[in-house]
Design brief:
It is a single chain. The chain has no helices and 26 strands. The chain is an all-beta fold and 219 residues long. Strands 2, 3, 7, 8, 12, 13, 16, 17, 21 and 25 form a 10-stranded parallel sheet that branches. The radius of gyration is 15 Å and the shape is globular.
């Protein structure tokens, strides 16, 4: 997918929650599955909105370019200029990012991507939240190089008994499985955050970093 643009609002309203199923919402492509994917030179200008009317049982990814890139996917020279906003609660958690929500492929690469839009979550009362200017939950990725965040990262009116992880670049970067076996070898180079992170509310665990919220195991 090369040199493509989205200028329209993508709005997903969930009045009837999906049970134990992931929902991916994005400006360019919601998810990639097969190997050999390239998303290059794409730009999103539209608002990407997820609104939970009831507590959703499944994981939710929301992003400007791709919600959940999997397998072998390269995201290169892509930009998000639109608002990324998830509101309401999901019991499994939110993965919210300017470029990607929750990449889950060990060979996923992000090269020279930039976010200029606000990345925002509001009103969550359940589930763990991972929010980043570039990537929300880095469940599995290999390279993050030459990426910049220029958009504010904002969490409002959250009152959750679970964890909140927010970073200017990545909210949570997973580096090992629960037994300590390394599953991802990260290469992170020439990246920068230029904008503010703001949190109002309550969380059982809260980690915030100018670049990364948490570098840790999955468990």
């Amino acid at each position: 997918i090369t040199e493509c643009e989205n200028h329209g609002t993508v709005e997903y309203v969930s009045p009837n929650p999906r049970k134990d199923a992931r929902t991916d919402v994005a400006g360019i492509v919601a998810t990639t599955v097969s190997s050999g994917n390239l998303i290059k030179g794409c730009k999103n200008y539209g608002s990407i909105l997820y609104k939970a009317k009831k507590t959703n049982a499944g994981e939710v990814t929301v992003a400007g370019i791709t919600g959940c890139p999997q397998s072998t996917t390269i995201v290169e020279n892509c930009e998000n200029h639109g608002l990324i906003h998830a509101s309401g609660s999901t019991s499994s958690g939110y993965d919210i990012g300017g470029i990607a929500g929750g990449p889950s492929g060990a060979a996923v690469e992000f090269l020279n991507c930039k976010n200029y839009g606000e990345v925002k979550q509001s009103g969550a009362t359940a589930g763990t939240s991972y929010i980043g200017g570039i990537i929300g939950y880095g469940y599995s990725f290999h390279v993050l190089q030459g990426c910049e965040n220029h958009g504010p990262v904002t969490i409002l009116n959250t009152n959750s008994a679970k964890s909140i992880h927010v970073g200017g670049l990545v909210g949570w970067a997973r580096i090992a499985s629960g037994n300590g076996t390394t599953v991802v070898a990260h290469t992170i180079k020439d990246c920068a955050n230029y904008c503010d992170l703001t949190f109002t509310g309550k969380g059982n665990v809260y980690s915030a970093g100018g670049l990364f919220g948490t570098f840790n195991n999955e468990d």
